[in-house]
UniProtKB/TrEMBL annotation:
<dbReference type="GO" id="GO:0019369">
    <property type="term" value="P:arachidonate metabolic process"/>
</dbReference>
<feature type="binding site">
    <location>
        <position position="86"/>
    </location>
    <ligand>
        <name>Ca(2+) 1</name>
    </ligand>
</feature>
<dbReference type="InterPro" id="IPR013819">
    <property type="entry name" value="LipOase_C"/>
</dbReference>
<keyword id="KW-0223">Dioxygenase</keyword>
<dbReference type="GO" id="GO:0004052">
    <property type="term" value="F:arachidonate 12(S)-lipoxygenase activity"/>
</dbReference>
<comment type="pathway">
    <text>Lipid metabolism; hydroperoxy eicosatetraenoic acid biosynthesis.</text>
</comment>
<dbReference type="InterPro" id="IPR036392">
    <property type="entry name" value="PLAT/LH2_dom_sf"/>
</dbReference>
<dbReference type="GO" id="GO:0005506">
    <property type="term" value="F:iron ion binding"/>
</dbReference>
<feature type="binding site">
    <location>
        <position position="87"/>
    </location>
    <ligand>
        <name>Ca(2+) 1</name>
    </ligand>
</feature>
<comment type="similarity">
    <text>Belongs to the lipoxygenase family.</text>
</comment>
<feature type="binding site">
    <location>
        <position position="374"/>
    </location>
    <ligand>
        <name>Fe cation</name>
    </ligand>
</feature>
<feature type="binding site">
    <location>
        <position position="379"/>
    </location>
    <ligand>
        <name>Fe cation</name>
    </ligand>
</feature>
<dbReference type="InterPro" id="IPR001024">
    <property type="entry name" value="PLAT/LH2_dom"/>
</dbReference>
<dbReference type="GO" id="GO:0034440">
    <property type="term" value="P:lipid oxidation"/>
</dbReference>
<feature type="domain" description="PLAT">
    <location>
        <begin position="2"/>
        <end position="125"/>
    </location>
</feature>
<feature type="binding site">
    <location>
        <position position="15"/>
    </location>
    <ligand>
        <name>Ca(2+) 1</name>
    </ligand>
</feature>
<dbReference type="GO" id="GO:0005737">
    <property type="term" value="C:cytoplasm"/>
</dbReference>
Amino acid sequence: MAEFSVTVSTGEAIGAGTWNKIAVSLVGTRGETPPLRLDHPGKEFSAGAVEDFQVASPQDVGPLLLLRVHKAPLLLPAPVGPVARDAWFCRWFQLTPPQGAPLRFPCYQWLEGAGSLALRAGAAKVPWADDHPILQQQRQDELKARQDSYHWKTYSPGWPHCLDEKSVKDLDLNIKYSVMKNSCFYLKVSSAITELKLKGLLDRKGPWKSLNEMKRMFNFRKTPAAEYTLEHWQEDTFFASQFLNGLNPVLIRRCGHLPENFPVTDDMVAPVLGPGTSLQAELERGSLFLVDHGILCGVRTNLINGKPQFSAAPMTLLYQSPGGGPLLPLAIQLSQTPGPASPIFLPSDNKWDWLLAKTWVRNAEFSVHEAVTHLLHAHLLPEVFTMATLRQLPHCHPLFKSTGIGIGGFSELIQRNMEQLNYSVLCLPEDIQARGVKDIPNYYYRDDGLKIWGMPFSLETREALVQYVTMVIFNCSAKHYAVSAGQFDSCVWMPNLPASMQLPPPTSKGQTRPEGFLATLPPVNATCDIIVALWLLSKEPGDQRPLGTYPEEHFTEEAPQQSIATFQSRLTQISKEIRERNQELALPYTYLDPPLIENSVSI
């Protein structure tokens, strides 16, 4: 009879401990022991505990293959209801034989109710490395259990498939927010709503009285980036820079020729281009860029406070001034159909005409960002990746209530983008190349993102697999943070990023007045709804795990441990470079600073 030492680590989360009985069976090449109870005087398996037990194997099972964990109610007959489930979060088991090195069996999951779970030692193995029928069978059983638990469904036609559950309440504990994270999230929601109610803003359905009154939102919350936005939102250089380093830095592309439906002329842009050049010369030089929100053309719109909202599908032409100068807007057309009712707005126009045209572009940015860049690319597609690999669900959170296009418009945009989506769009190096923006200066999203991506171009089979995995990790971590963390910074000064527009786009010049500009913007209550939502979605509510941090030690070999250490060291260096650069910037770009990036989609 052989004596084994068993060390068990219970998670530290609220409710991680259990009163249930825990036993283990040793599974080897020559058999399996009966369940061996883990018991000693006093309470076992409390949250945060690391405990040692001694068990005696009644037989020689040969070289160990698996550790089978058994969980059963302490009392018989078993109780019913929540007490019967008595969930336990187990981090790991460590088994030390009479002779030989300890074996670590990672678990890192909740065990609910009574049942058994087979654990492998912490060595990574591909299917063909399973050299024993017991291991082969365990792999098949685990996959079948996951497939039985997590089913695909179509949430809406044209959307990516997702997990087949009716609500978050139906999810098992392994794919829910932690108790702490949920608590922090709902406390933040409650405090924000209460604050805006007390200020008399949340339920006020009328328009804002003035731009100055909108500054009251800064009494709600403010950040250095938000204050910079308030100060500079009307400037052309800041308007253009947001296509590079704002919350949606993925639409701008080099313009090789002007679209036929965007008839900009030399006379229109001469005041910005200056003497001695022309549109054609700048096109050939590669200094013109286009942002086309054509995906919004004809999209259905929402009702807010019983009033129909309006949408535009603008095109914006931008100019990269020589010598590393700023990016500047040249012209804006607010529809995809040129003509007398769709004038081309210019920086030389009346101040309020030009400001309103830019604000319509910012509204289009909001709609495309929230529906496509954020919801589809950074939530719905990562859910597909996760379901297809680990069969787990990131928490998704579409914004529908107070946006100008609503859930119907969101659905249309997602369907349209899915029809044209291709693999290269999700691979940062290929996307940068395809959009022709590899050398545009001051594009920090590109510069920082490529450092974190760290994947060389290659079409070899092994490298292609690495690129795919890199794409998944990058989109679920760095890109999600880049397009999510700046939402509040961009929107708390609402005219910079209006979620809806209450009047239709202008069809002529010279008609815009300050009161008309104000009347076009969202009403007070809709502004509050969006700002509260984006504040919550911009900030991690707790339980943060920065990129490169792996508290769950699933693999114990030296090779993955060394890879993790190398990755962490590189991220530290990237962060140092970013922070040194940001010291020289009037508006630091922090949305790809590794310590701030979540390991995965977490909010």
